[in-house]
Amino acid sequence: MISNSVSDLGVTVCGTVKIGGLPGYYCSPLYLAENAGFVITGVAIFLGVCLTRDIWPRSKSSDAGLVLLALAGVGKVAAGLSPANVDLTIHLLDILGIILGNIGMIIVGKALRVEARRVARFTEALGVIGLIGILGFLVGSHSGFGSLLERIGGYPLIIWAAVIGITLIARRNVATTASTDNDTQSRLQHTFVRAPHATGHLGVAPVVEGQDHPVGALVTPVATHQLELFLRVHHKLLVLTTSIVYLVGPVRSEHLSEFISSLR
């Protein structure tokens, strides 16, 4: 981490190679994984910025910061597709991307100060740390701490993107769960509100009280009370069954809901 730069891990040969006119020994058996990591990280950052545009403040400064962050992603893709020993010029676009990305974080952080102070502070802090690290690397790349400074400059953007992404996913899952719970509660309330009307349309009153009803003429007062009790119990079982079906099988419960609606 101190003696080798991140780019050394992506060199595609094992042996003495001249990079930037300077000979050196390089050997990274997992160079394919490193370069693929560059590309995947860059694509993720670029798409992440584009797909989450609506959550960021609508302002010119915010737009500028997001453009810089997207360019940082492009720089990483370029570094992965062009390892240092293949095309150093294109590979070094990642350094430019790191600088732009850190500046972008600072700008976006300032744009967030009013709406989300904690996120703003977190974003600005990582941007400042990253900018100091990458500038230190450019000044002292050949010092004993050059590679460490490179990582201090490049990792903050990756950390920031990961934290923001995980936070957004977690909040979305919470919102989805809450929405599902509210939907279930709404359906249950819908059932309990509408179901009591169902027995009213089963002809209880005409059967019990209507003397002109064929059944009413044959029902004794005791039998009438028993019939009312039976229908009330039937109603409670209907509500309970409907509630269970709504919870266990919301799709199949549509038939029962339609049945209850038909009784209204």
Task: Based on the model shown, name its key terms.
disordered C terminus; about 70% helix; 2 strands; mainly alpha; 2 domains; about 260 residues
Secondary structure layout plus pairing:
Blueprint: E1 15-19, E2 22-26, H1 31-51, H2 60-81, H3 88-91, H4 93-111, H5 117-139, H6 146-194, H7 196-200, H8 204-209, H9 221-248, H10 253-262
Antiparallel strand pairs: 1-2
Helix pairs in contact: 1-2, 2-4, 4-5, 4-6, 5-6, 6-9
Describe the structure.
The protein is mainly alpha-helical. It folds into 2 domains: 6-174, no CATH class; 195-262, no CATH class. Helix content is 71%, strand content 4%. Helix 1 runs antiparallel to helix 2, helix 2 packs antiparallel against helix 4 and helix 6 (146-194) runs antiparallel to helix 9 (221-248). The N and C termini lie far apart (74 Å). 24% of the residues are buried.
State the secondary-structure class: mainly alpha
Low-pLDDT segments, ≥5 res: 191-220, 232-239, 241-264
Give the C-alpha Rg: 34 Å
The tally of domains stands at 2
- List the strand order in the largest sheet: 1-2
SSE series: EEHHHHHHHHHH
Per DSSP, the total helix count is 10
- As a percent range, the share of helical residues equals over 70%
Average pLDDT over all residues: 76
In short:
The chain has 264 residues and is mostly helical.
